[in-house]
Task: structure prediction
Amino acid sequence: MSHPRQQRGLEIAATARIVKKGAAWLVPSQSGNGRYKVNPEKPHCNCPDHELRGVKCKHIIAVEYVIQRECHADGSTTITETNDSAGNGSKDLSTELERLQCGSNA
Result:
């Protein structure tokens, strides 16, 4: 089973409008109260979870999923598989992400 942050990140990637603005991405709060600014290259997010714990939060994970998913003009989707340090693929999450319609986060 996936880590809860990964699951919530996937939910955000599937349902929220995540917008790239310069080098940062704007990710809406799940509570609907504002947005968080994510820099996936560092990675950094200004949400309380990331700021207090210093761990990869659901907002960073959501942006990573959006970046991994490449939508084509014909409506098809390409998923970039990633592996963790143990060599385990993220196929379960990618399979869920594959079901998303292209353009839902555009």
Summary: Residues 4-98 form one domain. The chain has four helices and six strands.
